[in-house]
């Protein structure tokens, strides 16, 4: 047997026991195990330790500095104490296996840390005038490079009725900003998008199915 290959595969046994190897590596390890009683014995010794390590949930290790939980360290130390003659190999594979777990957790934490924060949205509050006293509504508009968004919060638009929203431009045109269905007493939060740029908009209107103006916001 090639001693280099034996050593390399032996170092993979911990990761193998954790089920963290690639399919190609699994094939190599299994082929080696078939012909190597020494590695089979090593695997039999470390397999019971793989179970608690597998139960480590990287998501629960904390977002700051991922570290294996205390109970894991205790169970590892107990296992090492119980097998004094295996101290070195067990220690080595556990370091490798724990690194897999901790690197996994660290990767996750890093992923969260580097995820782009949603940009602060510059909300512009708008006073909404309503024609129907049942309607209560507030709105904010958001200037975008592609147009203007209207974030409408309201109750009292007739349940099940379809409403259309338009933006009125400075030169008197109206541009569509989308539609919504009234939710009656339940509060609705509706984002409506229009292609009108914020500086070009002077108002938005909410129209019922007959085109009557039921609410409007001056911009
Ligand atoms: Zn071997």
Describe this protein's structure.
The chain contains 5 helices and 9 strands. The strands form 2 sheets. Strands 2-9-8-5-6 form a 5-stranded antiparallel beta sheet, with no helix packed on it. The model has no long low-confidence stretch (mean pLDDT 80). Among the domains are: 3-56, Arc Repressor Mutant, subunit A (Orthogonal Bundle), CATH 1.10.10; 124-218, Immunoglobulin-like (Sandwich), CATH 2.60.40.770. A hairpin with a 4-residue loop joins strand 5 and strand 6. It has 219 residues and is of the alpha+beta class. Bound molecules: zinc ion (ZN). Residues 6, 9-10, 32, 36, 38-39 line the site of zinc ion (ZN).
Annotated CATH architecture of the domain at 124-218: Sandwich
Total of helices = 5
Strand content: 25-35%
Q: Mean pLDDT, nearest integer?
A: 80
Please give the share of residues in helix. 25-40%
Report on the biggest sheet.
5 strands, antiparallel
Shape designation: rod-shaped
pLDDT under 50 segments (min length 5)? Answer: none
- Lateral arrangement of strands in the main beta sheet: 2-9-8-5-6
SSE string, helix = H, strand = E? HHHHHEEEEEEEEE
Helix and strand composition category: alpha+beta
Radius of gyration: 32 Å
How is the CATH topology of the domain at 124-218 named? Immunoglobulin-like
Distance between the termini: 82 Å
Strand tally, please?
Answer: 9
Bound molecules: zinc ion
The CATH class name of the domain at 124-218 reads: Mainly Beta
In quaternary terms, these chains amount to single chain
